[in-house]
Write a structure and sequence with these properties.
The protein has 11 helices and 13 strands. The protein is α/β, with parallel strands linked by helices.
Length: 340
């Protein structure tokens, strides 16, 4: 889905960004490698092709060790979204997210100039000048890599490394929801990557509390037939919920994994499935509401404010768990513990 006229993709993007106002690139909150890489590459293209500086605004935190290492070793500058002015003259690019979604900090009333994402469209977005949504791609970084390739600019090593890792992280090394476009983009980028920095990112050191969090998540995991669910409570950073869901899906004879955690009064839910005929995004939208979740066939995420209707975290988590099992058609019997 795109609305770029007859200009061609890259020229249409540059036309949308070539205005007098400041340029702000906004990925989703708590940005992952795909969002970080896409934002960094758009900033690079704006500088090289338009001579225009841009700010990457960060909502939430960068918590996962690999993501922090990526920011550090690839020199990705982030500015807290609270300190970035948004007004009518600001040119906003949303990457790896879309207007109206609960996972970004786009101020109400601000219409972005451009939206670039690999998730399904949630609206028509008629006011957006440049719209490039490719739900058949495994990563937003793949879309932006094509911009880089088609513009024939010099391939900067750190940008190539960021995009390569963004694709690898989003598709689990091209093993999850990857497409020929993702493979082609990875092959194009690899010769330009900095292998030493890439290794430092992929093998980022983690604190002791990381292992405690995984131990607690395993101890709290319950198996309901083909589904394993862990209500892990308070987490140090939101991405921990997704990490647990990815890890639990490796359990033998399980087709669905779900992790539920709380961070800053937000209930985070990550859902994964090995069933290629399923639609995790649709399942989670039915579970927590269409405006609170999104995703693809095999992976989805959502968040709900804890405290709505006076619900505490534990009660809200139980409600999500029960609704998920009902949506999946699984008996709500007492689950079996994973360990113990």
């Amino acid at each position: 889905m795109a609305s770029n006229g007859d200009k061609g993709v890259v020229p249409a993007l540059l036309c949308a960004l070539d205005g007098p106002g400041p340029l702000v690139i906004l990925p989703h909150d708590n940005p992952d490698p795909d969002a970080l890489a896409s934002a960094a590459a758009i900033k690079y293209l704006a500088k090289v092709l338009l001579g225009k500086d841009a700010t990457i605004a960060q909502g939430g935190i960068v918590g996962r060790a690999e993501n922090r290492a990526m920011v550090k070793y690839l020199n990705i500058d982030l500015a807290p979204v609270s300190g970035v002015p948004f007004d009518r003259d600001t040119l906003v690019v949303l990457v790896d997210t879309q207007p109206g979604r609960p996972n970004n900090s786009l101020p109400e009333g601000i219409c972005p100039q451009a939206v670039i994402d690999h998730h399904p469209p949630y609206e028509n977005y008629n006011g957006v000048r440049f719209l490039d949504l490719r739900e058949d791609y495994g990563a937003t970084s793949t879309i932006v890599t094509e911009y880089l390739r088609d513009s024939r600019v010099e391939i900067e090593s750190k940008i190539a490394t960021a995009l390569f890792y963004g694709i690898a992280a989003e598709t689990q090394d091209l093993g999850r929801e990857s497409t020929p476009a993702d493979i082609a983009a990875s092959q194009f980028l690899y010769p330009y990557t900095n292998k030493r920095r890439l290794a430092k990112i992929e093998n980022a050191r983690v604190p002791r509390i990381y292992f405690k969090a995984f131990r607690d998540a395993i101890e709290k995991a319950q198996i309901y037939g083909p589904v394993v669910i862990s209500v892990i409570g308070e987490v140090q950073y939101p991405d921990m919920v997704a990490e647990v869901a990815d890890f639990l899906l490796r359990l033998e004879d399980v087709q669905w994994s779900c992790a539920i955690g709380c961070y800053d009064r937000q209930l985070y839910v990550s859902l994964r499935t090995s069933d290629r005929d399923a639609n995790a995004g649709e399942v989670l939208r039915k579970t927590v509401g269409a405006k609170s979740a999104g995703g693809h066939d095999t992976m989805a995420g959502g968040r709900v404010t804890v405290g709505e209707e006076g619900l505490a975290f534990e009660k809200a988590a139980v409600r999500v768990k029960d609704r998920l099992l009902k949506t999946l058609g699984v008996e709500e019997t007492t689950g079996a513990t994973l360990v113990g």
